[in-house]
Specification:
The protein is of the alpha+beta class. It contains nine helices and 14 strands. The strands form three sheets. Strands 3, 6, 7, 8, 11, 13 and 14 form a seven-stranded mixed β-sheet that branches.
Length: 297
């Protein structure tokens, strides 16, 4: 999976910004100050301009593109420091003196949009925010790299046959520090990361979706949805065509699996009606999908 560059959003700052009045240095009036604020670059751009010249980049990716249903996946945050100064992501510290001291801890959250499928309910979606407490301080020396692992475990129905989570990692460090420069209190919004979950056979077949789909259509209906999603990542139109040709299947369970996979890949909600799916594929809407397939979740 391609690692996207980080987008950053300032949550606050350790010291107030100074506004120059220009000319004789007189303070700006309220209207002028509001106008200046509107013209200022977005906060995420301000932080990018702060980190980039110092050689600091932060990115995120899935530990594995496909994981086993019921198991734990993870988002890995990579911190790279190509600059000449030490960079710190402050995770914990103590304020005050005992017995009046206070421990503070950084945290993170994973905001997830999940698409999943079960035999009885078909394709469903859920939205959640998973908190991760007590992040440690990460020190990235000049010219060094460090990583942070954020565990991801979804609360899915036991009958789920496949799931794809679009995960937006958000870090809430106590501050970011570059050497002896003043600290900055920020919230770090990382780009969306895709993580898929499937039965063990499908999760292990990341490079063999087509072969797995044929085996599933032949005798493993519980693998059809995951195999179709895996195959559809490389060839959505060919996968839909193969599922249409495979209708209805030898029994109700096989037919249901094929139709659920078609719903996932196309976004069409046509139930288990074999002729409805065949008619859709031959219709203008089906031809439109074949010319420009929808993006998979």
């Amino acid at each position: 999976m391609t690692r996207a560059a980080i987008a950053l959003l300032v949550a606050g700052c350790s010291s107030p910004a100074l506004v120059d009045g220009g000319g004789g240095g007189a303070p700006l009036d309220a209207a002028t100050a509001r106008s200046a604020a509107r013209e200022a670059p977005p906060r995420e751009e301000q932080i990018r301009r702060y980190l980039e010249p110092r050689g600091i980049t932060i990115s995120a990716h899935a530990e594995a593109a496909w994981s086993t249903l019921g198991g734990e996946a993870a988002i890995v945050v990579e911190l790279r420091n190509a600059g000449s100064k030490e960079f710190r992501l402050v995770g914990e510290r103590t304020r005050g003196a005992w017995p009046f001291s206070t421990d503070e801890h950084a945290r993170a959250e994973l905001r997830v949009d999940v698409t999943f499928a079960t035999p009885s309910a078909g394709v469903r979606t859920l939205h959640d925010s998973l908190p991760i407490d007590d992040l440690e301080t990460i020190v990235v020396p000049a010219g060094g790299e460090r990583s942070l692992r954020l565990p991801l475990r979804l609360a899915l129905p036991d009958a789920a046959e496949c799931a794809v989570a679009l995960v937006r990692p958000i870090l809430h460090p106590l501050a970011i520090e570059v050497d002896s420069e003043p600290e900055r209190v920020v919230t770090l919004h990382l780009p969306e990361v895709r993580v898929a979950f499937a039965p063990p056979e499908a999760a292990a077949a990341a490079e063999g979706g087509e072969a797995l789909l044929e085996a599933a259509l032949d005798a493993r209906p519980e693998l059809v949805v995951a195999a179709a999603v895996l195959s559809g990542e490389r060839d959505p139109v060919g996968t839909v065509d193969r599922l249409i040709l495979a209708l209805p299947g030898r029994d109700a369970r096989a037919r249901r699996a094929r139709c659920t996979a078609l719903q996932w890949l196309t976004g069409a909600r046509l139930g288990d009606g074999v002729e409805r799916w065949r008619g859709w594929w031959d219709s203008e809407e089906g031809r439109k999908f074949a010319s420009a397939p929808r993006k998979l979740p």
